[in-house]
Amino acid sequence: MESFSSESYPYAVARNAVYARKGMVATSQPLASQAGLEILKKGGNAIDAAIATAACLTVVEPTSNGIGGDAFALVWTKGRLHGLNANGRSPRNISIDQLKKAGMEEIPAYGWAPVTVPGAPSAWAELSGQFGKLPLKDVLQPAITYAREGYPLSPTLARFWNNGYQKYRKELTGDMFKHWFKTFAPNGRAPRVGELWSSPDHARTLEEIADTQAESFYRGDLAEKIAAFSEEHGGYLSKADLADHQAEWTEPIKVNYRGYDVWEIPPSGQGIVALEALNILKGFEFPEKESAETYHKQMEAIKLAFADAHEHVTELTHMKVKPAKLLSEAYAAKRRSLITDRAIQPEAGEPSSSGTVYLAAADGEGNMVSFIQSNYMGFGSGLVVPGTGIALQNRGHNFSMDPKHVNALEGGKKSYHTIIPGFLSKGNQPVGPFGVMGGFMQPQGHVQVAMNTIDFGLNPQAALDAPRWQWMGDKIVEVEHRFPHHIAQELQAKGHQIRYQLEPNSFGRGQAIWRDAESGVLAGGTESRTDGTVSSW
């Protein structure tokens, strides 16, 4: 671990990286991390631990994800990296014309219009079937127990839960939303810190998913309940949409950054934003981390990469400009040439023809998993399927209502997707999984954590703790309250509109586990901006 051995960071909170050998799980919720570790100690591998943790997070952090969301994974096993895309499609019978006839000029955040097929249960079943060691029923048992018996809310969780409740009680009107309030505000309010919350419906659903390898969710009793709820309220999701869904194994995409391969899931995910930005940035030298010049170039590269993604990225089969073009050396050089000493207003280029939860898991056998799942925008669509505890996602909110746009809403299509797992390797050996959840902060967080690790030699905890920034649009960049003031002033002088943001969770929540190639020792970091925990063995 010599490359990542920095003991401290001048602006970091006082936390150290965690070191272990037999296994490690890093996530934003202590109960979920411990559930993954429990599965490792029962003979499961890192894949089993990741599934157990992910399922548990739907119970112990429902403010960010749920059974009705999507999931993606990067899995290092058997000497190579595998990508899993469990992104659900839009309903077959939805269209821009339909929504406009219903009086919608943009896709709403709540209700049935933004609901897409949930992919998370298919991800658990597919990972378990391909690479797991234990039966899925054993792996999901910790989540089932927490859902049935309940657990006390942690402080950060309670705050986000109340924020969601306050928003939903204003926004959600109509009979279709009553099940959300029954499930998540059973006493007419959000549960409080230390208060027990349980969901027996959620427990029964998890048991049915475990018993049927998720078949019930897509082609059985659970699918019937989801489709019936949709039909009752004039929704677009049907039994056929659910039955058509299948998690897909995919070849991850990468760029080489200073001798390290940085990996992401290919579009429709936005991981390509992080890769394009790194490809641009590798043409510069960064002698020191804490300089206005370093931050300026990072911000400019991110802006250029986002502009390209918003113009070109959607489901891979619908993309006119393929990832290889956006990640080519020639295109990186072309975009790099646009970076001067002044902040720019980014525009998309044309390459020539030429609310989410993230977890990292590793075991003593060398298996490593980077896993992410989300309902989007907190609790999602505001719809909970009666009697199931299934909170449906609102991922379709990211579609465009412009029929000429590459990411235009169509039936049976995958939208531009924000959630992205990351992975780092070097010389055909895994370094490890990393990720930073949080909407459009995610690729920006990936770039910052990767550079903190590779360029500046920070250990995983220090790489996560370092103050973050987030480009918000135009020339506006938000920075954390711990961000150095003198550097903020220098960035202002370069034309950036710097805004200090006091809310720490505006800058994402990350996890990372690095593995030493010689000893197999694991070094883990977790998010200091929330209730993050590394459970290790």
From TrEMBL:
Pathway: Sulfur metabolism; glutathione metabolism. Keywords: Acyltransferase, Glutathione biosynthesis, Hydrolase, Transferase, Zymogen. SUPFAM superfamilies: N-terminal nucleophile aminohydrolases (Ntn hydrolases). The keyword Cell membrane does not apply. One of its GO terms (molecular function) is leukotriene C4 gamma-glutamyl transferase activity. The keyword Transferase applies. Cleaved by autocatalysis into a large and a small subunit. It catalyses: an S-substituted glutathione + H2O = an S-substituted L-cysteinylglycine + L-glutamate; an N-terminal (5-L-glutamyl)-[peptide] + an alpha-amino acid = 5-L-glutamyl amino acid + an N-terminal L-alpha-aminoacyl-[peptide]; glutathione + H2O = L-cysteinylglycine + L-glutamate. It holds the Pfam family G_glu_transpept. Its EC number is 2.3.2.2, 3.4.19.13. This enzyme consists of two polypeptide chains, which are synthesized in precursor form from a single polypeptide. Belongs to the gamma-glutamyltransferase family. This is Glutathione hydrolase proenzyme.
